[in-house]
Amino acid sequence: MKVGILGGGQLGRMLLQAATNYDVTTYVLENDPECPAAHLCHHFVKGNINDYDAVYNFGKQLDALTIEIEAVNVDALEQLEKEGVKVYPTPSAIRIIKNKILQKQFYADNEIPSSAFHVTQTQSDLSKFTDFFPAVHKLGEGGYDGKGVQVIDSESEIALGFNAPSVLEKKIKIKKELALIVGMNPKGETITFPPAEMIFDQIYNLLDYQLSPAKIHEKQLWKAEAIALKIVNSLKSPGLFAVELFIDENEDVWVNETAPRVHNSGHHSIEANYSSQYDMLWRILLNYPLGNPKAIMPSAIVNIIGAIGFEGDVIYEGLDEVLKMENVFVHLYGKKKTKPGRKMGHVTIISDDYQDLTYKAHKIKNTLKAKA
Ligand SMILES: Nc1ncnc2c1ncn2[C@@H]1O[C@H](COP(=O)(O)OP(=O)(O)OP(=O)(O)O)[C@@H](O)[C@H]1O
Ligand SMILES: [Mg+2]
Question: How far is the CA of 36 from the centre of ligand 1 (A)?
Answer without folding.
Answer: 26
